[in-house]
Amino acid sequence: MTKRYLVRRAGQAIVVLVLIACINFLVLNLAPGDLVDVLAGESGVGDLAYLQALREQYGLDQPLYVQLVKYLLNLVQLNLGYSFRFNLPVRDLILMRLPATLLLMFTSLGIAFLGGVAFGVAAARAPRSIRDSVISTLAMLAYSTPLFWAGLMLIILFSVKIELLPSGGMQTINGPNDPYSVVVDIARHLVLPSLTLALFYMATYTRLMRASMLDTYSMDFVRTAKAKGLTPLGIAYRHVVPNSILPLISLFGVQLGSVLGGAVVVEVVFGWPGLGTLAFDALFQRDINLLMGILFLSSVLVIVVNFAIDLLYGWLDPRIEVEA
Amino acid sequence: MEISCRDRLKLLGGVAALTGLHATGVRPALDVIGSAFAQDTKKNALRVAIVPEPPSLNAAFNSAIMVQQISTKMMDGLLAYDKTFEPMPSLATEWKVADDGLSISFKLRPDVKWHDGAAFTSADVKYTFEEVLRKHHPRGRATFANVTAVEAPDPLTAIIRFSTPSPYVMAALSASESPILPKHLYEGSDPPANKLGNAPIGTGPYKFVEWRRGSYITLARNTDYWIKGKPEVESLVVRFIPDSGARAVAFETGELDVGGTDPVALADLERIKSLPHLAVTTDGYAMCGAMYYFEFNMRDPQFSDLRVRQAVAHAINRDFVAKNVWFGYGSAATGPISQKLVKFYNPDVPKYPFDTKKAESLLDAAGYPRKAGGVRFRITHDPSTYSEQYRRFAEYFKQAMRVIGIDVDIQNTDAATFQRRIWTDNVYQTASYGIFNTPDPTIGVQRMYWSKNIRKGIPYSNGSGYSSPEMDALLEAGQNEIGAVKRRDIFNKMQILAMTDLSIIPIINVDYTTVYNTRVKGFTEDLEGVFGTYANISLA
Asked: What is the average pLDDT score of chain A?
């Protein structure tokens, strides 16, 4: 890993980030109406002078390119701006919701990954058997079920009928404060949302793992292993899985970036206080500063994760060279 | 040390498995099944749903309904109102309107403390009306425009002085409309930017404790409240649940006690009503006078002929809309003032019964015969975005107009675009939206019909461009008339004129619904329902 390579990647990352910020800004400002319109409509403000004063205060009356340059300059100093709707700095708002999102993200992708590998291996070890058909069908069902429906059905089953788990939110309010209770409480609230989100991603991992393994099974070294007399289970987990897992790792990296904002549906259904609902609301409230902040964070995450996955590739598979 | 490929993967796998096991929550959840686990502390905590999450908590600066629902628990107004809209004492114990209508004097309640322990005095009233409500409240700027000064001759007397008689002010003194702010905490600051907006200090029955954004707000009982022994509830928890299905579930499982302004989809209410521990009520919204209006852009030559507007009115079956779009939680409107505003509602106005044949003959007479394809002309319709019912109405409207030969193009947008199109750019042809009459038509109805309120950029102003000298004269007379009988007479005439000129076709008197758990007592006695202070609530 040469320094030149790292510098090159860093340079690319910065250019991409600036481009993304500019494009986001321009696209978000294309729609008619702005933050003051939303505030005025909701709060019933009836005075043009007041609205004009608000626009001046928020800097919305200046020409677009001036606003863009100001935003980029702030970004360089890691100042994400101020959300006038919430009356809080954007950075604080994001940091408030980030832990909840990260928790949901890693839990659901973790379940999806492990489950996907397990089911994929099970399916690929006996291709075109009943086991394979059942797993493939279930995967297709999980993939095509709408997330909000799956979420609501799980709530009805586990909260209303069985009364085992809470129906939404992240924590019990006014509950006991000791660390153990808090952890258990959050875990109880986390089960249903992460399961709902995981179902969808697990389906993709299952199918991908299965296809990748079937591909690897046809290779010569597997035939050699069988000839040597290794057990089928041994062949599967010691030879085939390690060689088939690379596509999943790259998919994992891609999905890590998309789940940050893409978990909106699950967050809305379960009232999970994450960044997805924040971004969704910010869009309709025309809170451009907040939305740009979240999008910026998302792009940073995607870039960092992509880089990490590239490095991981090189580490896992010696045949792959990271540098050109 | 050389680590082989295989071992690297094992390492990775082991780490992943370990985090996975801990992160799935399976192990802790299993632990919990066996043991007794404390549920949401139900004892003496009232769990409320407010939709959507308010942007701030002080109704003095933002009159959106979700802000009003939380602000009134912490901040009181000078007056409250009973079921016939007559004023009741709150922070003011006595009041007198002068005979010339140019002042109102209030005797204030003694021994009232702010949540931080300071004493409530007339200085707070003076500061609130002069520096806050008159300058920064969205409606207050118009409502209190005639206030010249507020005198505070002694700590328990406040006198509001007017430049001209303003009888509607007496209806605008509730906690939801005009909360009183603490002068000692606001003085010298810029009131709207003051951080207290997110953590209010008031005189109300509940004190602010915490606001976890995106999750909940907690309030605690004010032990020094000016009604001894109230409130009986120890804490109030406001939960934010964005999905209406999830809210319905939360009511069913007993995780929510009260929710207002249609917390559950109307289609779901029959099922909710049938559950023994839940109840649905339409009480508590009389002060709002919620209406659903259909509006023409009067600048558009297509609608300059009155017969065209009358034809559209005859072709909308308002009873059908009330029954099928609002599921019966509303009634057909006959005029611009809500039937609930019993002091002003006039039933004797020109009527437009559902009659498609009459509509078609009116259109023919106006010079719009059916052309190719059976279509007379094409128009667009912009429904408001704040409720699913509005979108359903737009779909019904399209079908209803098809019957009489008008082709409608529905413009589905979001809130900001809707406001731009209707009130800033005026680029719409027809629009429909929900709006509150408030208890006095000068505050809530005049704004749609007054030619001086045609102001670009202000939502819920006179967006249609309707301008009639006769209407202006009536509205302005009603503004300043202090005799109650004469004033009612003026507004009777106003309603007749509004339904003759038909710039707006009122569609529905909307009945908002509140869903509550039957263990909540004392809720239905308050005129203001979810907008009330909840001082008298107790839990069975």
From this structure: 87
Pick from A72, A316, A112: nearest CA to A197: A112
CB contact under 8 Å between B243 and A271, yes or no, is yes
pLDDT digits (tens, 9 = 90+) for B71-96: 999 999 999 988 888 899 999 999 99
Contacts (Cβ under 8 Å, ≥6 apart) of A86:
A93, A287, A290, B55, B213
Q: Are B167 and B478 in contact (CB under 8 A)?
A: no
Q: Angle CA(A19)–CA(A25)–CA(A29) in degrees, nearest 5? A: 150
Examine the pLDDT at B30 and tell me if it is beyond 50.
no
Residue B141: which of A31, A47, A155 has the nearest Cβ? A47
- Give the DSSP letter string of B47-100: EEE-SS--S-S-TTT---HHHHHHHHHH---SEEE-TTS-EEESSEEEEEE-TT
Instruction: List pLDDT tens digits, range A48-62.
Output: 777 888 788 788 888
Chain A closest-CA separation from residue B352 CA (Å): 31
- SS3 string, B361-372, reads HHHHHCCCCCCH
The whole-angstrom separation of Cα A133 and Cα A139 is 10
- At A324, is the pLDDT very low, low, confident or very high (cuts 50, 70, 90)? low
B252 touches chain A (CB under 8 A): yes
Q: Please judge whether A44 and B138 are an interchain contact, meaning their C-beta atoms are less than 8 angstroms apart.
A: yes
For strands B514-517 and B258-259, give the pairing: antiparallel
Tell me the pTM.
0.82
Say yes or no to pLDDT of B17 above 50: yes
Q: What is the pLDDT of residue B34?
A: 31
Please name every residue paired with A14 in a beta bridge, in sequence order, or none if there are none: none
Residue B347: CB atoms within 10 Å = 10
CA distance B161 to B149: 5
Count of CB atoms within 10 A of residue B271's CB? Answer: 12
Question: Which B-chain residues 121-180 have CB contacts (< 8 A) with chain A?
Answer: 136, 138-139, 141-142
